[in-house]
Amino acid sequence: MLLGTNWQGMDLQYVLLRDLLDHRKARMVVMSMPIPEFTSDRPHVQAFRWLRFGDFPEVLAGLSPVSKTMLYGDYVLGAPRQWLSKIRPNLVDPHLTESPTFGTHYKDLGYYGAPFVREDRNPPAIPVADMIYSPATAASFNFNGARLGPYQLHFVKALADPLRRTGTYLALLHVTVAGEIGSGVIPERMPWADLVNTPLSIVGIPDAVLFAGKSSEQYYHYFFDQHMNTNGKMLFTRAIAPALIAIYEQHVR
User: Fold this and answer.
1) DSSP 6
2) Is 174:214 a contact under the CB 8 Å cutoff?
3) Tens digit of pLDDT for each residue in 104-119?
4) CA distance 96 to 113
5) In what order do the strands lie in the sheet with 28-31?
6) Strand partners, 201
7) Residue 52, SS3 per DSSP
8) In a 10 Å sphere around its CB, with 0-12 CB exposed, 13-18 middle and 19+ buried, how is residue 253 labelled?
């Protein structure tokens, strides 16, 4: 099951995780944490669409008065839509759910509007252990990025409770972005294992390893902006999948 989000926000990621684990059995969850470009320390820009009055009061109670006030504004803004959903089901455009191209809008775009150029999608041979954080691979991970603000950190720490309650294992996946070109380390914002008090693994591939042998021109054929296009998604998925499978077999199976 894939729960894709439009724009990051740890409040949204918490709510998605909480809703999933409250209604589904998941033995392992794979999640990515905010990239350096993410700077917001306020409620998700679309919170009024998905946060209902009364949801998760025990989590929201620990927020600052300023954050609570902003969330109250989201409640007010979203109230008419939530009220309407009480008297009739939410309407879903059938063309979205039936379209074979739904969710693939960016798959064959070049970098910032450039023509799409198909590149090789077969990754280099990378030992599985090299992709998973451990004392032996610590030098390949950098957890000293820009710290998240108090609002986002509140929800980072809150992730642990539903995971522990349901016995779900957490794999934190670093997804490469175009700004990492040539980097020999995996840049993360903070030491997540110290903040999320639950068993977890951290997995990723340094940009210089994933794109070894690619020229600068070839490199940008794998992205449509900071995000990967089809070339990048296929390359990254094929490279990282063995590590995620290994984590599942070691900690879950």
Assistant:
1) S
2) no
3) 555 689 999 999 999 9
4) 24
5) 28-31, 169-173, 200-203
6) 171
7) coil
8) exposed
In angstroms, rounded to a whole number, what is the distance separating the alpha carbons of residues 172 and 200? 7
- Cβ contacts of 247 within 8 Å, gap of 6 or more: 28, 132, 169, 171, 201, 203
**Cα–Cα distance measured from residue 170 to residue 21, given in angstroms and rounded to the nearest whole number:** 12
Compute CA 149 distance to the chain's CA centroid, rounded to the nearest angstrom: 18
> Whole-prediction pTM value?
0.89
Which pLDDT score, from 0 to 100, does residue 119 have?
96
Q: Which regions in the chain score pLDDT beneath 70?
A: 1, 92-107
d(CA 119, CA 100): 23
The values of phi and psi at residue 25, to 5°, are: -95, 115
Q: Which of 238, 245, 205 is nearest to 119 (CA)?
A: 238
List Cβ neighbours of 182 (8 Å cut-off, separation of 6 or more). 207, 208
Within the chain, residue ranges assigned H as helices are 10-23, 47-50, 57-60, 65-87, 94-98, 150-158, 160-166, 192-195, 207-210, 216-219, 230-251
User: What DSSP assignment string belongs to 79-129?
Assistant: HHHHHHHHHSPPP--HHHHH-TTTT-TTTT--GGGPPP-----PPP---GG
